[in-house]
Amino acid sequence: MSKESQDLLRRIANERNIALEVLEDALEAALISASKKMLDPEMEVTRATTDPETGDYRVFAEKTVVEEVDNEALEISLPEARMFDLDIKLGDTIEIDVTPHDFGRIAAQNAKQVVTQRIREAEREMVYERYCNKIGELVSGTVQQTERGNVIVDIGYAEAYLPFNEQPRGERYHYGDRVRAVITEVSQSHRDAQVLLSRKSPELVKKLFEQEVTEVRDGTVVIKGVAREPGKRSKIAVMSTNLDVDPVGACV
Hints:
Largest sheet: 5 strands, antiparallel
Distance between the termini: 63 Å
Shape: elongated
Strand content: 25-35%
CATH class of the largest domain: Alpha Beta
Structural class: alpha+beta
């Protein structure tokens, strides 16, 4: 791969927080896919590379060395094979350059499309993997926009969705507002990964107490139940695992 191509992929990987190897594999897959549209469909394309000096794309296929060629897509004669390897023998396989004419232009178009698609897939997978095990956890974020009462919240590595029916009555949100909520669902489709939030869930009260009260956080005081009227009031039932600690006093 040329230095320019390598630098470009590295920059994209850093900006999108995607492993460089993922983009390199996507580029090679794109080149192989593009070449198969121009070569004999029977040809066994094994790999694709970028010339480090010229930046040109090259494609390689594996062929079997035979005495008499019946299928040019899969076979190569011994004299021709020995132009690449003097020690080659009948029955051996050899990898040769089969780059189609005018491959560069078509390959570049295909590579851009496939790499862009792989970036979207990698970002979707990254969001899902980061949040799928955090259902019920408290997150903080910044309001990005509102859509028909629903709120889009930037929670760091993803834009989460706070539905209207998961918002306490009377709350209003504006761009830049800080919001704390609990994750209620994480799903993944062919288009994207979606993180759903709630500010009405009783779990939010528990998590806020865990964050603010040391005794709840370390397990000395246990929240046994939550009764809540979102936007108005909340009541919690608590108990202490230590006779010397007043559970109600600790939470006030």
